[in-house]
Write the structure tokens for this entry.
Amino acid sequence: MELNHVNGETDDTDIESSSTQRNSRENHFHHSSYPGAVRQKAYIFDGEGNYYNKEWTLEQGRGKEFCWYHVELPKGNQKLSHLAQYLIDVLCPPLKLQDILSLVSNGPFCGYVDGALVFRVNSAGPASSKFTFRIAARVTENSVITVSLGRVPRLGFSPANESLLSEIPKERGGIVIREHVLDFLLTMNHSEEADNPVPRSVSNLVVHVIDTHVDHLQDFVTKLEIELDTVEFEMDRGGFALKKQMLDDRKFPKMHLDLQRLLQVIAHGEQVFPRVKEKCSSKDWFAPEDINALEELIGRIRRLKENVGFIANRVTAIQAGLDSWQAEQINRKLYYLSFLSIIFLPLSIITGVFGMNVGGVPWTGQRDPTIKDGFRNVMMVCVAMLGIVLLCFIFPAIYSRVMTWRRRRVLRKSWSLNRKSFARRTGGERIERGGYLRL
């Protein structure tokens, strides 16, 4: 009995020590080397339209439950390797290095990595640029892990019935929204986070992630359209100073470059999302209505691509108008300069002629017979040089006229010879056949 009791104490001690070691390992694994570098959100959904915030454990759901873990990378001057280190810090373990690199790498991708469906739409621009978009997801049957660069509007969830107007102070005349806040709201093509329908399945959540990404792109396209309309209105009202400032700031070439970056992100989505739909359609846990929703999102992003193309054409047309205006300004200045040269060129010729250091210049009272022919000789040399220069300019035109005349003469001569030979060959037959020619 004592032996069993000792063994029992030993077993309990081993269990406690093993649990302590396991807890210490878990704490070591989840200890952050970059605290505060990224924002993390974790939700658990019960499959019946309810959700709860949960701890960052990266565990999968059970039964109808499924989990969503979102990492928001900072928009700054970090390199891609730094962003990868941040992800490794928060996702490893249980994710492997291959899984993490597939989420953070540049370019479009859709495929299976370690049994999970991974897709990403990551542009290769600098992380600090507002036209650099990154969204990636790792999808399994009971969990979704997403990574974004910066905040994506409407991606998260907030308690229902909490409208944005509740955060705006009321004044005596009612609710007063400031102008910059209203301008921001007018650029949003989507509802608030409180109005998001709570996903009931992983397929609903995947559609929600892609839908918010497309809405994010649509927001930027709307902002560009509003900015372009404002610039066109200012150009119509503005004058020389405004147009000169736009040319100096290279406003439209920069806008065109931003449009090309945005167009690249949209093209990546156009490549990836059809493949996501194709791969998800083979999953039994992906609902058919969500497949149709993905098809609608693919159509939206294609229309968005066409819209960005129209905006790029508008920017090109405005830039062409500014270039023509600048050329007109340069031509006007050249006209004034040529008018001044017309005035001062004869004066410079007169001063040059009468300022020559030779003898025999008229009206200068030089009576020395040894140098009286100097002026005449210099003027003869100048006239000869002028004739040579004019001949160099006129010679190509004269040569082309002479060659054209010779060509016409040769063609006229050959035509007359052919006509005579044809008349000799057909003269007898004309008489015999009554004036008809053989065809």
In short: The first helix runs from residue 2 to 29.
